[in-house]
Amino acid sequence: MTVQPSLQPYIDAWTQSIEAISELVSSLVEGEWNRPSELPGWSVRDVVSHVIGGECEALGDPRPIHTLPRDLYHVVDEPTRYLEVQVDVRRHHTGPEMTSELEYTIIRRARQLRNERRKPEDQVSHPLLGKLSLESFLAQRVLSVWLSEQDIRRALGRPGNVDSPAARIAAEVILRRLPKTIAEDAGAPKKSAVVFDVNGPIEFLRTVRVDENGNGTVDSSPSLGPIVTFTTDWETFSRVACGRGKGKKFEKVADKLKIEGDQALAERILASFPLAR
């Protein structure tokens, strides 16, 4: 157990989710590694490479020196280019090579987390996330690993862990992002409210309110007159809020997503959800 007890829930959730990934891929045949995921351009192998790369960087390992091919259509900006390096450098690795590196990375990272001496509020820096507290960084790692686990499960047709401890931490991280997405990115009107009514194994009602200055906040109080209401299940919400299934106006999840109110704003909100990896 880490010397910082308040960090233990994040470490436990991370452990359960990343070990689930290891178990999922341990017996894959070569063709299954190539199954496409919902992430543009990424296969199961690529998602696992992303997990390994993220944990290696958390360990402080030097980034690979690698030049990306120029024909990767899904690499569209600096963040996707940054993430792609850890993926492309492993693109031709065999299944046994992938599982061996994943297992070794889990052992190393678990040891680091057990010996963590920093305080939850200590600041860490990340090339994409900027400066944030150690606690927030661990929550982000839980979100990333859980999303990757779910991407792999959907690609392989092996659902599970939608209500795991990692899923609940993922929900907290996603909800904290809603005010910026709706107030700033989607440009919801001032003095308006957008409601998310989510059911299933993780259930909640959240209202994002935009004040007279255009600033967004989120709370659990209902709104009497929301401009838009989204009603869906937890798994669909997590996919939509993390940019999965975006093609053709979310046709992959359209039957599970009920939208009431301003349709133009709703479409802007859906389009504004970032692709989280």
Task: Spell out the key features of this protein.
2 domains, two-stranded antiparallel sheet, Nonspecific Lipid-transfer Protein, Chain A, alpha+beta, 277 residues, 49% helix, five-stranded mixed β-sheet, 14% strand, globular, single chain, Four Helix Bundle (Hemerythrin (Met), subunit A)
Describe this structure in words.
The chain is an alpha+beta fold. The protein has two domains: 5-161, Up-down Bundle (Four Helix Bundle (Hemerythrin (Met), subunit A)), CATH 1.20.120; 167-272, Nonspecific Lipid-transfer Protein, Chain A (2-Layer Sandwich), CATH 3.30.1050.10. The protein has ten helices and seven strands. The strands form two sheets. Strands 5-4-3-6-7 form a five-stranded mixed sheet. The protein has a two-stranded antiparallel sheet with strand order 1-2. The radius of gyration is 19 Å and the shape is globular. It starts with 7 loop residues before the first helix and ends in a 5-residue tail after the last helix. Residues 15-153 form the Mycothiol-dependent maleylpyruvate isomerase metal-binding domain. GO terms for molecular function: isomerase activity; metal ion binding. This is Maleylpyruvate isomerase family mycothiol-dependent enzyme.
The general outline is globular
- How big is the Rg? 19 Å
Number of domains in the coordinates?
Answer: 2
Total number of beta strands: 7
Strand order of the largest sheet: 5-4-3-6-7
Q: Unreliable segments (pLDDT under 50, ≥5 consecutive)? A: none
CATH topology of the largest domain: Four Helix Bundle (Hemerythrin (Met), subunit A)
Q: What count of helical segments does DSSP give?
A: 10
